[in-house]
Fold this protein.
Amino acid sequence: MSGMQPPIPVARALRQIEADPRVTNVRIITISPAETTAEIDMETALPSRWLAAGESPSGVRSAEPVTVVFGGRFPIEAPRFYLRSDFDRSHPHLQPRTDGKAEPCLVAGSPTELLRSRGISALIDQLAVWLEKAALVQLIDPQQGWEPVRRDGIDDLVVADAVKLRGLVSRESGCTALASRRATEKRRDIRLHCIAVGDEKAVIKAEIAHQLTIGNTGLAFVAWSGKQPTGAPFVAGRYSPESVSDFKTLFARAQELGCAEMLFSKLHLLSLRIVGIRFRFPIPIAVIIIARRPCNVIGVDSPLEVIPYVFEIDGTENDLSRSSAKPVRLASHRSPISPDLLRFASASRRCSGGWSLLGCGSVGSKIAVHLTRAGDAPMRVIDRAAMSPHNFARHGLLPTSVFDGALLMSKADRLQEALNSFGSEVTAEVADASRLIIGGGAPKFADDSTLLVNATGSLTIREVLSSPDVGKPRAVEACLMGGGRIAYLAAEGPVENPSSVDLVTEAYRLFRSDPEFRDVVFQSAPIEVPIGEGCSSLTFPMSDARLSALTAPMAEQISKWRESSLPEERGEILVGVTPADGLGQRWLTQAVRPFTILKQADQSSSVRISVGVQARIEAEVASKPGVETGGVLIGRWSEVTNAFHVVDLLPAPPDSVFTTNEFRLGIVGLKEALEALHSETGGALYALGTWHNHLVSSGPSSIDMRTAALLAVRQFFPVLLLIQTPGGYRYLTAEVIFKS
């Protein structure tokens, strides 16, 4: 290494390479500002039976000369390694090159990142491993997968859904012609033919010629192997780089892959059909061979490899025979955006049934886009509103111009258009969701929709969805609270029990018991954001980053429910809170068992009691045997569903009277307790009425009726008197509508 002085980083690397015991010689070949080239001799540790011959049967020598090229950007970029010029390029894991050089692919990833993390010695280790596996013909590792056929040059693109192509393969060998669309694309100074294979059914014989004469349509021939005489599938288990350049070599490759006869039978039919036809310009035709490999192809959950080619016809030369010198070009396969591809990239599973989205605003659009990117787009999106300029501050969609918001385009239509660009089939409904659910005729939900996501943030929609017998899928509510610091996600139980209103009322109780949630949820007030002359939107100002950080976990949970199932025989609440600086999140999960639903023929309202309230009532009754006891019922009343949702109790004041015939509610400390409840929950929870027990199974007494009438005067919604008896619950409601 004397006489020439490479740059210091290169000299340092060469010194480290020279110290490796597997390297027997290091020679600097050239030094320039652009690169430094060195040659090293690598011992390959051949088995003893091959050492005498000096090389393995696969052509790997006992000492391989390797050229190491350090570019001018070293050590920012890793050096390149090249094998001798006569090295057998039929080995897998060689980089595609048009200059004929043999460059081994040393790592499944970035060599530069490996250099950064483990130094130059790690690249030498990988080179030694590569040469050893090449000698043993073990470069293809079944655990990693089959190396796709190497192509040193690409002339065209074939765009086709690989999942659907593989779905054509059957036990018997075959070939089918599919309709396609063709276009010429210019990339820098290169013109590529791009052939998009459609999902249409196979083109029948009579249509083959016609398909080539209409617009920019074309043909793609898809061929696959069948089974061997033994009945076992034909497996193309020998790796070889691409060698096709004309029909003669295409036939040889098709024979190697087990589908030559079927493919060339179809091509012969094509040549017969186009006799006498003159085309205005050459028409590219795609040939796609589906090869069955011994193991799954790298990066694909299938042993079927997609290998495309392209040739042209113009009507002047129709020799498509197996010995023809007609040129065949190599093509690169690209998959179109499709739900199957998105599921594969997202490591998600196909879900049974579909789902619908109510509300295409910020939260709804983010959730829809997240799930669509995972291959699970909604079947239907519903919203009556139009996009306004300020919506784009945190909406899941991007504007196409600064005038988008002023055009008042429908949120549902815009979202549908965006989601369908992912290969989905989403329909949009521009309508008032509450009218669709109640009073608008038949519900607009797909028959196989198994989930309805309510992202409207609307109290009205929440209560409408909680109405009995609305004919809808099981609902999940997703919204933000507390100025965008709280994420709320709730899945109702089967048959609306617990319902969306049950769940949010229970959530308010949970918020009250947690100081952080309580202070954020109940102390944040919305403000008006001006959006134009004479109108405004009541909303919470927040950044897109904050909203995205909270909607992403909700989308993830919805995706999990879609892939497995919603909680059985119960509902579930998930709430997340992020601190004021936005750095971090804390999530709580609460299972909610079905509420007890009371509905009496003599009462218009119904009563829904949580499991926790029932347990506390039973415990209180057991603690005072032989006398009546009671307390105050806490929760919410829904005017839409005409139902009381009871989730909490206030104990009886100390001056209450407990006797065998009567429970009389005291007043000491009661006013203060109710004021604290109102203050701590911002009025989200309030007193609904009272409860007491009877020692025998009986309905409301005359005292109960007078008490109900007196209490009804003091509030502006029905008062509830709940009675626990040995035979079950009874209740009484009273309301004063007109007061003279």
Q: What stands out?
A: The mean pLDDT is 84. The two ends are 111 Å apart (CA to CA). The longest strand covers residues 174-187. The CA atoms of residues 404 and 422 lie 21 Å apart.
